[in-house]
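quick one, 327 residues, struct below
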Amino acid sequence: MAGRLATVFGGSGFIGRHVVQNLAAQGWRVRVAVRDTEAARFLQPRGDVGQVLPVFADLAKDYSVQAAVAGADLVVNLVGILYEKGKQTFQTVHVDGAGRVAAAAKAAGVKSLVHLSAMGADAASASAYARSKAAGEAAVRAAFPAAVILRPSVVFGSEDDFFNRFAGLATFSPIMPVYVSDGFCAKNGCALFGSGGTKMQPVFVGDVTEAILRAAAPELAGKTFELAGPTVYSLRQIIEMAMKYSGRKRWLVPMPLSWAKIHAVFLQLLPKPALTPDQVRLLAVDNLPAPGALGLADLGVTPTAAEIVLPTYLSRYKNPFAFTGLA
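---
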């Protein structure tokens, strides 16, 4: 099959599967660079026969990355981790891996490179995750100056690990903790929840996918965009939405961030950590676009409201007995 070739690193992940499908729909041949090619086979039916091909790629090996980008017109790097485990550290994935992809793409004569970073990437952050994202951006810029960098806020969609996590917790827990830093005062009318916890602008995965595809345009080379949804929510409001659309009623309990640090000490030991000390450091800072930053509008994308999408997938958490009178 002739046509433009795109290599997508991390194409089997939450955002990646949408990117692969949309690229295929636009006529691209898609090379999905992943560590587990068998697990990525589910992507092949999302294009015509032979249009989507999973290939092995190890971000720690130069030759592996070079083989994955050879002959590509577009390279998209979506690889990222939320916590460190074994050899998968922020340094090896977000910095070294990102730099290796950018260097290989430049050497191979790739026309466009789109690198997915994260909103809040900051070399001076208290969070190792945010610092590594900033260092990864610097590594990409050094190797491929014309790369387009996208910094999404928390991304939501049917396979997300954000609203789904809160809705899932509400199916068995009678309380929902809301970590706040300015509540608990009883004088002067101060509310227990204070301002409601961390502020953020969750962005729909479909909008992020569209932004990635549009970012490959030659006239956008070298620019950075911060991708955010249309509304600012507090952590409390986000949890309330998760409960509303999952049909669950639970007690919201304000807890100081100092408690979150204690909880994280134990929760980080789970096979899939529910909360880590580094994530608590992220919660201490609002996750919002920088003033004047380029965003979805500059890419011609209209952000989708969470209230439109959440009912389409959080309804699966509703109590099956709620409609029979047995609940």
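DSSP finds eleven helices and 13 strands in the chain.
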